[in-house]
Design brief:
Blueprint (H helix, E strand, L loop, with lengths): L3 H13 L2 H7 L14
């Protein structure tokens, strides 16, 4: 389990990424086919 501060920073970072960025960094979680779909 991450410390609360680290988890919060990770959450902020992930929220700042666009769906295309998410698909690029996490292809297993966000397949490219869904990158153009609204979150």
């Amino acid at each position: 389990m991450l410390p609360a501060e680290d988890a919060w920073q990770l959450l902020q970072f992930m929220q700042a990424l666009s769906p295309q960025d998410m698909a690029r960094h996490f292809p297993g979680i966000y397949p490219a086919s869904s990158a153009s779909a609204p979150a």
